[in-house]
Amino acid sequence: MTNKHIEKMPDASESYWLNSTELPTFPSLTEDRKADVVITGGGISGIMTAYQLTRKGYRIALIEADRMLNGTTGFTTAKLTAQHGLIYDHLLQHNGEETARQFYEANTEAVQYVRTLIEEKGIDCDFSEEPAYVFAEDEEQKEKVVKEGEAYQKLGIDGEFVHTLPLEIEHLGAVVMNRQAQFNPVKFLKPLIEEIITQGGEVFENTRVTDIEPNPRPSAVTREGHKVEGDYLVVCSHYPFYDKEGYYYARLSPSRSYSIAAETTGDYPGGMYVNAGQPARSLRCIHADGKKMVLAGGYGHPIGHKQNTEENYSKLYEFTDQVFGIENVPYRWSSQDPGTLDQIPYIGKYSTEMNNVFVATGYRKWGMSSGVLAGRLLTDLISGEGSKYEEMFSPLRPISEPNMKQLTQTSFHAGKMFAEDKAEEPKGRFADLQTDEGKVVKYNEQRAGAYRDRQGSLHVVDTTCTHMGCETHWNNSERTWDCPCHGSRFSYNGEVVEGPATKPLKRLFDGAQPIDSLE
């Protein structure tokens, strides 16, 4: 980063959403339990599923590996919209009109459900109705945006292609979807968590589920060996951690993106925006303590494929500064989300062999409407009411020939990364390690990851991912070791930050021993 960026940018991730709201705390699980439905994952999907099942009289056990909402939901851009990029022309071309229309209807119903809950319960969560735009920056993108507008017309979507934008940015037109929304997801979900508790549900934090025992009644098994047994089990842990069924590691492609909340000199015109090409850049407004901040997001990449991720924040800063003029950046954060083979989330039965185990994943960075949708759909399936959207979102749906090729490419990529990293000789040296720097080094004749913290202490871990054995790479902005194969992430001292891994990296050294003695 330039000196200008460093002066105005925080040096560590902090989410405005989480900072804006004090959440209740919950105990860790210390003994075996039973419930009607066991849910793993304390983000929007898990909470919405738990909330709706609780309202139907089910006894819920909601288990979170960290703190509630401290995953992707707490680090989102929080656009609540059925406009998931340029999705509808794609669905028309590859899945047909019925699927495209149902996708729009399902997400629109999710947005409306949030509106209804806010009105009925009087939830103050900075909800505002906004038009959502996808804008083109070159002729190739314009052609795609025009086709998306035509798809809107065919599907009866409230929107169209437009030649002008309220936002002063270079463009060649955009497709707008009207009556979409933005909100503060933490403020919205907090009262729902509280209602889950008052209705008899249980919430456990800092409790990592590492295994599932599927039969006869499914049980979630924690790292400490405790079990929570239920009639049904729902995996809402962002990336499914259970590999014995479903093979989600071959069907999901996780990527990481970046956000900054900036105080600007220029006024924000309203609306939500994202460009049609790559690198993706997203804009919306935050209303915080009587003033506005511009929330810019984007510059994503596959996880573990970039070590200098500070550069992504720098590019995001430059883009936002160019459009609005930045005075200060109080917050910055990043998050990740997996995409599916066909761009439609997997919501439904986990596998053909596990009838009472369900999953919700693959939101492709559009998790607010998708998470609400998942809660509604899973509740309908568990309660036996059924849903017209079951087949479209089913994780068991057939894989088309083009998507089968992508599955093969995904598996090949993981194998390629595995082989290349295993063959590469570590080049880093302890003697060259600066304060607040991480590198791959050789330690006791093996590949290791070393980080020197700001107090001078060294933290050395085995870089081999505990999920499937790929080698993790350093992420300098988050100070984590990230796996390029399936997206697991670990803290600099090896603790699991993101799954599918459930076990920490092996610690090789922790302490303030002089660097020279470790060479």
What keywords describe this structure?
519 residues; alpha+beta; Rieske Iron-sulfur Protein; nine-stranded mixed beta sheet; eight-stranded mixed beta sheet; 11 helices; 25 strands
Provide a brief overview of the structure.
GO terms for molecular function: 2 iron, 2 sulfur cluster binding; metal ion binding; monooxygenase activity; oxidoreductase activity, acting on paired donors, with incorporation or reduction of molecular oxygen. This protein has helices spanning 3-8, 16-20, 44-55, 88-94, 97-121, 139-155, 185-198, 310-324, 367-382, 390-393, 401-423, and strands spanning 33-40, 60-63, 79-80, 128-135, 159-162, 174-182, 202-204, 209-213, 219-222, 227-235, 253-264, 272-275, 281-288, 291-302, 326-339, 346-351, 354-361, 437-443, 446-452, 458-462, 473-475, 480-482, 489-491, 496-498, 507-511.
State mean pLDDT (0 to 100 scale). 92
**CATH-assigned homologous superfamily of the domain at 430-518:** Rieske [2Fe-2S] iron-sulphur domain
Mind telling me which CATH architecture of the domain at 430-518 this is?
3-layer Sandwich
Rg to the nearest angstrom?
Answer: 23 Å
CATH topology of the domain at 430-518: Rieske Iron-sulfur Protein
What is the global morphology? globular
Largest β sheet strand count, sense and barrel closure: 9 strands, mixed
- Strand content of the residues, in percent? 25-35%
Distance between the amino and carboxyl termini: 30 Å
- Low-confidence regions: none
Structural class: alpha+beta
How many helices? 11
CATH class label of the domain at 430-518: Mainly Beta
Helical fraction equals 25-40%
Count the beta strands: 25
Protein name: (2Fe-2S)-binding protein
InterPro entries: FAD-dep_OxRdtase (IPR006076), FAD/NAD-bd_sf (IPR036188), Rieske_2Fe-2S (IPR017941), Rieske_2Fe-2S_sf (IPR036922), Rieske_Fe-S_prot_C (IPR005805), YhfW_C (IPR038010)
Keywords: 2Fe-2S, Disulfide bond, Iron, Iron-sulfur, Metal-binding
Organism: Planococcus lenghuensis
